[in-house]
Write a structure and sequence with these properties.
With 254 residues, the protein is α+β, with helices and mostly antiparallel strands. 28% of the residues lie in helices and 25% in strands. A hairpin with a 4-residue loop joins strand 3 (37-42) and strand 4 (47-49). Helix 4 (139-148) packs across helix 7. The longest helix is centred in the middle third of the chain and has 17 residues, at 154-170.
């Protein structure tokens, strides 16, 4: 369940003795910063902090918990009513946390609005050909490769997992992924309010593509781009997909 704002506000109030505390809401969770460094977060109404030598010793072997699927374990903070305890915890953890990497300023990729014309389906993808599908690699997979290759900063990876968690909870996962996509299908978004809304929530992915030099394209199709083997309110899954020809358009996004 998403973390409640009331719980986050209470934790922030308890951290009021710590200087330069900020929070950032990310898909229902709250990432916590001190002097620009991520030290913890609020996940499903749990206050979790990074694992450091000090946090482990100060909290006397605290309980480890996973903030969200596939994330690294963190320590559960149970003494949230003790302001002085929290002040000591965060202030002494800070030197043990990695320095924040310089971030390039955000640019116009924050705006993800598509100019919709008369088409039924669209994809956002790179020029690279994916190994399994032998089709242009989609946006999610392209940014996932940046994470796998450890290209992104720690802060960006935290943001990636928070975004991924939200999409996995709100965008249906096509059934052909259950066996590793042996049918080599790809997905196209529907040009409707559902598909467009999902695209407009992809600002983080577009920003990372821009920052790390990934060329992105939007391909649209006026008709079915291939044989449909899966469909939900947001997208279709097709095999033997076409990407160009009559009824298709392709434009460079980044």
């Amino acid at each position: 369940m998403p973390s409640s704002k009331e719980y986050c506000d209470y934790v922030l109030d308890q951290l009021s003795l710590v200087k330069e505390i900020t929070s950032r809401k990310m898909m229902g969770e709250y990432i916590l910063y001190c002097k620009g460094k991520i030290f913890g977060g609020i996940y499903d109404d749990r206050f979790l902090v990074k694992k450091t030598p000090f946090s482990k010793s100060f909290m006397q072997n605290p309980q480890e918990e996973i903030p969200y699927e596939d994330a690294n374990p963190m320590f559960l903070v149970e003494e949230i009513d003790n302001k002085e305890f929290l002040q000591q915890l965060v202030n002494n953890m800070l030197p043990e946390l990695p320095e924040k990497k310089n971030m390039k300023s955000k640019d116009k990729t924050e705006s993800t609005k598509l100019t919709f014309t008369e088409f039924k389906y669209f994809r956002v993808h790179t020029q690279d050909i994916a190994y399994i599908t032998q089709q242009p690699r989609g946006l999610f997979a392209a940014i996932g490769k940046l994470v796998d290759n450890k290209v992104m900063s720690e802060e960006e990876i935290e943001e990636y997992w928070a975004n991924r968690k939200w999409f996995e909870a709100n965008l249906p996962v096509p059934t052909f992924y259950d066996d590793g996509n042996t049918v080599k299908a790809i997905t196209w978004y529907k040009n409707n309010s559902n598909g467009n809304d999902m695209y407009e929530r992809m600002t983080f992915y577009l920003r990372m593509a821009k920052k790390y030099g990934l060329k992105l394209f939007k391909t649209t199709s006026k008709e079915k781009p291939g044989e449909i083997i899966y469909e939900d309110d947001y997208q279709i899954g097709v095999v033997n997909s076409l990407n160009s020809g009559i009824g298709f358009t392709k434009e460079e996004l980044i």
